[in-house]
Automatic annotation (TrEMBL):
Residues of the Exocyst complex component EXOC6/Sec15 N-terminal domain: 59-228
InterPro entries: EXOC6/Sec15, EXOC6/Sec15_C, EXOC6/Sec15_C_dom1, EXOC6_Sec15_N, EXOC6PINT-1/Sec15/Tip20_C_dom2
Keywords attached to this entry: Cytoplasm, Exocytosis, Transport
A Gene Ontology BP annotation from the UniProt entry: intracellular protein transport
CC per GO annotation: cytosol; exocyst
Pfam families on file: EXOC6_Sec15_N, Sec15_C
Function: Component of the exocyst complex involved in the docking of exocytic vesicles with fusion sites on the plasma membrane during regulated or polarized secretion. Involved in polarized cell growth and organ morphogenesis. During cytokinesis, involved in cell plate initiation, cell plate maturation and formation of new primary cell wall.
Family: Belongs to the SEC15 family.
Name used for this protein in its record: Exocyst complex component
Top-level taxon of origin: Eukaryota
Compartments in which it is found: Cytoplasm, Cytosol
Domain Exocyst complex subunit EXOC6/Sec15 C-terminal per the UniProt entry, residue ranges: 421-767
Length: 804
């Protein structure tokens, strides 16, 4: 023990006396290296290198001998220790024997005491094992009971078609008992039945979804019809409000004293679509059975089954196929009869898709709905282009346009863009108006052909309101007594109704088409209707069917009434187009029926001239070389005035003053030209002053006739009527003048003789014979003094001949 406890000491060589020698130094170094356990290789190499290995051996022997004494001392020390250890072992041996005997005794006692305990322990271990088995059995039973309860609940949910809860029970069975089944039989049962249940549920929900797909097509059509119908009702309410507003504006324009209030009606059905069609925010049944429960149930079940993406794709493909099927236009049914069903089906489809997009929890994406809408818009535009190109009736095109615009209004509420549809409608604007013009041309032709050129008789106030007030062609705000004979024939209200219908149809087509300001378009086609259709039809009627003065007078009266009606047409178009009347008045052109009006007045004037010519033929009976002037006028003028007075008494009942004035002015101008023509013509070879004075009386009678008509006209119109006789009056004044050479004075001529032609003056002046000198002094006394008037007249004739 002491040997092991000792530590090894490091050998440090002592310094030898006389360490000056090299051998001693080498020996010391070698001893130090050996004592320190260093490598002796360098010493060996050095010894051989120096050729002195014997010295190295000698040093090694010396070192060995120096250590022998140390070894001996160590051995002696260890020997003493060994003796002591042996003594200790001998004493320990006796103690071990004593301990062995004690242990033997203790073992015997332990064996005798522990026997019964070991038996009890064995019984305890056995009981504990039985208890564990019982616990395991109880756990198995509880697990089986829980499994059977889950199975029972799953079967119950399946029998009640509560598929989601059945799937939850199935998932619970699979998660809790797939690896912990109490028995292999139950485990096999679970492995077999769980996929079967899921497959069964998937088939059932797919069948319900298929039934929903079939049902939703019918629901979509009814839904679209209801939504478009509500849009139509809303539009009608807006139109009613506009009508009331226009009536209020019209009454205000007429400066009525009664206050007019336009109350905005409460729109009880403003949210009719959302309250009816979309009453169930959870996708339940709405007003038309708009039920999304089967769809959402199928979607939820597929989400639970982990088949969400597959169901989304399945749903999208089926709905896309349905939409494609909805695009089919039957060739067996006219599109006019089927267009409402066609568009209502598409509208309902996208109303449903909008609801599913908002409440379906990602069943369909916004991009997918937009793609479906783009396809639908493209197809609808194609169908409209094709159908519009085939239509030849304006009313059919208008009906379809109105329904398409209602479709656009309906779907715009759901955020669908409808610009492409509106572009198609705008594209066919010109064709529609051409068809409308063609229809109106036929109607106007039929209305004019049925005209009997008789004043219209109205027996009841409603007839007056329908035929006069509704077109604002009355001349007074006072309602006349009935029966009332209108100054126009039945053609006027018939044509007014046709034009008004044209305006309303034009505005109806242009309205709700994406254009807010369309009055210019309506006005353009209204100008065409009036200027090309109505004007040409009236012109044709005047040239082909008017044969008498009464007919011509009636047509002229009709034209005057139509002139007032045209003002109403433009105001009506402006009101329907929603622009202020002052703007419409600024854009007004001249009367569009100018050609027909002028033709009617020319026809009336021509017929009157023909009548007057019959009386003017009596001018041949005038004595141009009368011995004395007539005091009461010639026969022809009396007959003419009697006829004109009779004419005026009749004409003023139906013809406006302006028209009557223009016609009479034309007739009087013709009479004046006839008188001048008679004097100028070859039938009158010569005449004297007495005959001219008789003509002066005739002209004064005609002027008196014009003056008597002054109450019918304004002062300016009455003066214009007298100017129609200017040529004959100026001619008579010139011939009766004492200084006829004043005709040569430009100032006097412009003031007093501006209607005379100098060539006619020369010819007529040459025919004048003075009674005092029947041949203008050619024959008679040469010494007599020449008549100053004759001299002036001769000078006038000479100067005019020189000018000619």
């Amino acid at each position: 023990m002491q040997l092991s406890a000792r530590t090894r000491r490091k050998v440090v060589p002592a310094t030898a006396n006389g360490g000056d020698s090299a051998d001693k130094l080498d020996q010391l170094l070698l001893s130090s290296a050996i004592g320190n356990g260093e490598d002796l290789g360098p010493f060996v190499r050095k010894a051989f290198a120096s050729g002195k290995p014997e010295t190295l051996l000698q040093h090694l022997r010396q070192f060995s001998r120096s250590k022998e004494s140390e070894i001996e001392e160590v051995c002696k020390a260890h020997y003493q220790d060994f003796i002591l250890a042996v003594d200790d072992l001998r004493s320990l041996l006796s103690d071990v024997d004593s301990l062995k005997s004690a242990l033997s005794d203790s073992n015997s006692k332990l064996q005798s005491v522990a026997g019964p305990l070991l038996a009890s322990l064995d019984s305890y271990v056995e009981a504990q094992t039985i208890s564990k088995n019982i616990d395991l059995a109880l756990k198995s039973i509880v697990s089986c009971v829980k499994l059977m309860e889950l199975c029972s609940r799953a079967n119950h949910h399946l029998s009640n078609n509560n598929f989601y809860m059945a799937l939850k029970c199935t998932d619970a069975l699979e998660s809790e008992f797939s690896d912990k089944a109490p028995s292999s039989t139950l485990k096999r049962m679970l492995e077999k039945k769980t996929p079967s249940i899921r497959s069964y549920i998937e088939r059932k929900v797919n069948k319900e979804f298929g039934d929903w797909l079939v049902e939703i097509r019918v629901v979509s059509r009814n839904l679209g019809q209801l939504a478009i119908g509500q849009a139509s009702s809303a539009r009608q309410r807006e139109e009613d409000l506009r009508i009331k507003q226009r009536q209020a504006e019209e009454q205000s324009r007429l400066s009525l004293r009664d206050c007019v209030y336009a109350l905005q009606e409460e729109d009880d059905d403003e949210n009719g679509l959302s309250n009816g069609v979309e009453s169930d925010s959870n996708g339940g049944a709405g007003l038309l059975g708009f039920d999304l429960t089967p769809l959402y149930r199928a979607y939820h079940i597929h989400q639970t089954l982990g088949l969400e993406d597959r169901f989304k794709q399945y749903y999208f493909e089926n709905r896309k196929l349905q939409l494609t099927s909805d695009f089919q236009v039957s060739s067996m049914t006219p599109f006019l009869e089927s267009h409402q069903t066609f568009f209502a089906q598409i509208a309902g489809f996208f109303i449903v898709e909008d609801r599913i997009l908002r409440t379906g929890g990602g069943l369909i994406s916004k991009i997918e709905v937009e793609n479906l809408w783009d396809a639908a818009v493209s197809k609808m535009c194609s169908v409209l282009e094709d159908q519009f190109s085939r239509m030849q009736t304006a009313n059919h095109l208008l009906l379809i346009k109105d329904y398409v615009s209602l479709l656009g209004v309906t779907l715009r509420r759901y955020g669908y863009p409808i610009d492409a549809l509106l572009d198609v409608l705008s594209k066919h604007r010109d064709k529609y108006h051409e068809l409308l013009l063609s229809d109106c041309r036929k109607q106007i032709t039929e209305a004019l052909a049925a005209d009997k050129f008789e004043q219209m008789l109205m027996k009841k106030e409603y007839e007056y309101s329908m035929n006069v007030l509704s077109f604002q062609i009355q001349t007074s705000d006072i309602v006349p007594a009935f029966p009332y004979v209108a100054p126009f024939s039945s053609t006027v209200p018939d044509c007014c109704r046709i034009v008004r219908s044209f305006i309303e149809d034009s505005v109806s087509f242009m309205s709700y088409g994406g254009h807010l300001e369309f009055f210019d378009v309506v006005k353009k086609y209204l100008d065409r209707l009036l200027g090309e259709v109505l004007d040409e039809a009236l012109l044709k009627l005047i040239n082909s069917s008017v044969h008498g003065v009464s007919q011509a007078m009636q047509v002229a009266a009709n034209m005057a009434v139509l002139e007032r009606a045209c003002d109403f047409f433009f105001r009506h178009a402006a009101q329907l187009s929603g622009i202020p009347l002052r703007m419409a008045e600024r854009s007004r052109r001249q009367f569009p029926l100018t050609k027909a009006r002028d033709a009617a007045e020319e026809m009336l004037s021509g017929l009157l001239k023909n009548k007057v010519d019959g009386f003017m033929s009596l001018i041949e009976n005038v004595n141009w070389m009368a011995d004395e002037p007539l005091q009461n006028g010639n026969e022809y003028v009396n007959e003419v005035i009697i006829y004109l007075e009779t004419l005026v008494s009749t004409a003023q009942q139906i013809l406006p003053a302006q028209v009557l004035r223009r016609v009479l002015q034309d007739v009087l101008s013709h009479i004046s030209e006839t008188i001048v023509g008679a004097v100028y013509g070859d039938s009158v070879k010569r005449f004297n002053i007495n005959a001219i004075m008789g003509i002066d009386v005739d002209i004064r009678l005609l002027e008196s006739f014009a003056d008597n008509l002054a109450p019918l006209f304004t002062d300016g119109d009455a003066n214009q009527l007298k100017t129609a006789l200017a040529e004959s009056r100026q001619l008579v004044n010139l011939l009766l003048s004492n200084h006829p050479e004043n005709f040569l004075n430009p100032v006097i001529r412009e003031r007093s003789y501006n209607a005379l032609d100098h060539r006619k003056v020369v010819t007529i002046s040459e025919k004048l014979r003075d009674p005092s000198d029947r041949l203008f002094g050619t024959f008679g006394s040469r010494g007599a003094k020449q008549n100053p008037k004759k001299k002036s007249l001769d000078a006038l004739i000479k100067r005019l001949r020189d000018v000619s």
